[in-house]
Design goal:
With 454 residues, the chain is of the alpha+beta class. It has three domains: 65-264, Immunoglobulins (Immunoglobulin-like); 267-365, Immunoglobulin-like (Sandwich), CATH 2.60.40; 368-453, Immunoglobulins (Immunoglobulin-like, Sandwich). 18% of the residues lie in helices and 39% in strands. The chain has four helices and 31 strands. The protein has helices at residues 2-16, 20-31, 35-85, 88-92; strands at 96-97, 101-104, 112-123, 141-150, 160-166, 178-186, 197-201, 209-210, 216-223, 225-231, 236-237, 246-251, 256-262, 264-265, 267-275, 287-290, 299-302, 308-314, 317-325, 336-337, 340-341, 352-354, 359-366, 368-375, 378-379, 384-389, 399-405, 411-415, 419-425, 435-438, 448-453. The strands form nine sheets. Strands 1, 2, 3, 4 and 5 form a five-stranded antiparallel sheet that branches. A four-stranded antiparallel sheet has the order 8-7-10-12, with no helix packed on it.
């Protein structure tokens, strides 16, 4: 009986306990995915989703661009048909670059399109535009018609363009007694600048015009005589820094007179004036720039105050501008007079390049001088010292710089532009003629000049 009881209990144990492998399997099912497996799964899903979304977005953009390009091409074609259907008198009224027209085309995106029309007389021997046919007789002109359509968010797609040539009635321009003006505008890189407003005085045809994609603005109906041509784009300057440059030209009957301008988006040079060894810089020191385009001698001085200056309206040039302090001729390390250089072997600092519409920065370090003032052999403290520059071609009226008051040792140290200065002490008579010479070819140390006063 006991044996059967034991056997019965053993059977009961066997019924209650599952095999070890089964228990392990059950535990695995209850645990599910590990954290690493979950992260990997999500990462794979994100990568696959990104690729799918990118493909869909690319396809939609391509479809949208193709649709916009097709609409723009149709608008260009419609505008060209309108121009071809005009009488020649109506077409003449379209001369020049017309104000852009905005056309709203009802589509899912509601895209506005801009239509720009240019009509210019072109000599038959012109290679690209009427501005490259200087002196050509006007009796062989045809009308070149250009239409360009653009739209927002073009994403690198080229505008839809249409071009044609329309011949005027035979003999229309034969010996009319009128001349033509072709105004060509190039940027700092030598490439055409479009959209520049051009005005001719006295008025010709058209009354207003702007340069086209070739940088050309063409005017007709100009009687023989003298005319003033001017440009006027906001933020642009010529090589002299003029925002509204002008040229006076003579027009001859039955010929094309060509006028050229260099005109680019203005750049800015930010200048910091610093004294050698930390010496104080007088507030009224001018800043001079050197560039071969400056007339008449390749330099231009800019007045101002303070140790930081912002010089704008500069024509952008990769060759750069050299800069120094002072506007007297001998303030220029490479300055010269009729008798030769002021400083044999003097050199300006490295040029600073400026780009269209951007700012560049440079620091000009002025030489310093230390002035020691004594009265009766005793240091004179608290007295003001002035440096006076003689007149020359750069500063015909001369210049004066206040160096400040002497300290307890009777000494004042200040920075000055290069040059030769007579030293004066306010309220005192100076003995002799003490001078300070600041030479760009000398050492960088600060010279000391002793001044004796009565």
């Amino acid at each position: 009986m006991e044996g059967r009881g034991d056997a019965g209990r053993g059977g009961s144990d066997r019924r209650r306990r599952a095999p070890a492998s089964t228990r392990a399997c059950i535990r695995g099912d209850q645990q599910g995915f590990t954290l690493i497996e979950l992260v990997v799964a999500i990462s794979l899903f994100a990568i696959m989703s990104s690729a799918i979304v990118a493909s869909i977005s690319s396809g939609l953009n391509l479809t949208r661009n193709n649709r916009n390009r097709a609409v723009a091409a149709n608008l260009a074609s419609q505008r060209m048909d309108q121009l071809r259907a005009m009488s020649f008198t109506q077409l003449e009224a379209q001369l020049g670059t017309q104000a852009p027209q905005t056309v709203d085309v009802p589509n899912p995106g509601g895209t506005p399109y801009t239509v720009t029309t240019t009509v210019n007389p072109v000599p038959v021997n012109s290679t690209s535009d009427p501005c490259d046919a200087n002196g050509t007789s006007t009796n062989d002109l045809v009308f070149r018609v250009d239409v360009s359509v653009t739209w927002p968010s073009m994403h690198g797609v080229t505008p839809a363009d249409a071009h044609t040539v329309i011949s005027p009635p035979v003999g229309l321009y034969d010996q009319t007694g009128l001349g033509f003006l072709g105004v060509k505008v190039l940027g700092a890189d030598g490439k055409a600048v479009s959209g520049v407003p051009v005005t001719v005085t006295p008025a010709v045809t058209p009354a207003t015009n702007s340069t086209d994609t070739n940088g050309c603005a063409f005017f007709s109906g100009a009687a023989a005589g003298s005319y003033v041509v001017s440009l006027g784009s906001a933020g642009y300057v010529d090589r002299q820094g003029n925002p509204s440059p002008t040229q006076t030209v003579g027009v001859t009957a039955n010929t094309i007179t060509q006028v050229g301008f260099d005109y680019a988006q203005a750049a800015t040079l930010n200048v910091t004036l610093a004294g050698n060894g930390g010496a104080t810089v007088p507030s009224n020191v001018a800043v001079a720039l050197g560039d071969t385009d400056f007339q008449p001698n390749g330099t231009h001085a800019f007045t101002g105050s303070g140790t930081t200056r912002s010089i704008g309206n500069l024509f952008p040039t990769t060759a750069g501008y050299t800069a120094w302090a002072g506007d007297c001729a001998d303030a220029d390390p490479e300055g010269s007079s009729a008798s030769g250089p002021y400083w044999q072997g003097g050199q300006r600092g490295a040029p600073v390049a400026v780009t269209p519409g951007q700012s560049a920065a440079t620091t000009i370090t002025l030489p310093s001088v230390s002035v020691s003032v004594q009265q009766g052999g005793v240091a004179l403290a608290g007295t003001d010292v002035v440096a006076v520059h003689a007149s020359d071609t750069g500063c015909p009226s001369g210049e004066s710089y206040d160096l400040g008051a002497t300290d307890s040792t009777g000494t004042v140290t200040a920075a000055l532009p290069y040059g030769t200065y007579a030293l004066q002490v306010t309220g005192h008579t100076v003995s002799g003629q003490p001078t300070a010479v600041l030479d760009p070819t000398g050492t960088t140390s600060t010279p000391t000049v002793a001044v004796s006063v009565q």
